[in-house]
Amino acid sequence: MMEAVRAWLTSVVLVSVLLSAAQSLIPPGTVRKAAGFTGGLILLLVLLRPVLGADLEHLELDFDHYQAAVEERQEELADTQTEAMASIIAEQTEAYILDKAGELGLEVTVRVETRTEGNGIPVPWSAELTGSWSQALASALETELGIPAERQVWHEREAEN
Asked: Please, which residues have CB within 8 angstroms of residue 107's CB and are 6 or more apart in sequence?
């Protein structure tokens, strides 16, 4: 490959030098303009020789490999996006539960787990709460966030003296 490039560059340089010498030897006038035009066409042919001589019928491009790589990268990006979205939803849901508990006068800590449903969007799936159990908060989790009682785990906190 490098030898072919070297040969092409050598021919371009050689033709350029010869055309320059010929141009300087021809007297000014119409003949010089015609010779300049003809020399430009010759130089253009020398420049395009690799493209004109290419055997395009036997050229094979392996787009399947690139398509598979693109699809794999798209899947990775979609997974990363879903994970980021799940993290944000869990954080926002935890903040909402803490606000709701504060409104009810409760002091709890919470951890929310999300799951991705069939549409690819993560939703709050379960909640693990540490603190005093509250029927009002448990009902709010079920009605407002769609986390039923069977997916709510409550850990009673020991009273501090």
From this structure: 101, 131, 132
| CA neighbor of 112 nearest in space, from 157, 160, 101 | 101
Whether 142 contacts 148, CB under 8 Å: yes
Residue 76, classed as helix, strand or coil, is helix
> Which amino acid is it at 128?
E
User: In angstroms, rounded to a whole number, what is the distance separating the alpha carbons of residues 136 and 104?
Assistant: 8
Q: Side chain identity at 31, as an amino acid letter?
A: V
pTM, to two decimals: 0.57
SS3 114: strand
- Cα separation of 129 and 104, whole Å? 15
pLDDT tens digits, residue range 32-64? 889 889 989 999 988 888 877 766 676 677 788
d(CA 41, CA 76): 51
pLDDT tens sequence across 10-31: 999 999 999 899 888 988 888 8
CA distances from 26 to 16, 77, 124 (A): 16, 65, 86
From residue 40, give the alpha-carbon distance in Å to each of 33, 47, 108: 10, 10, 84
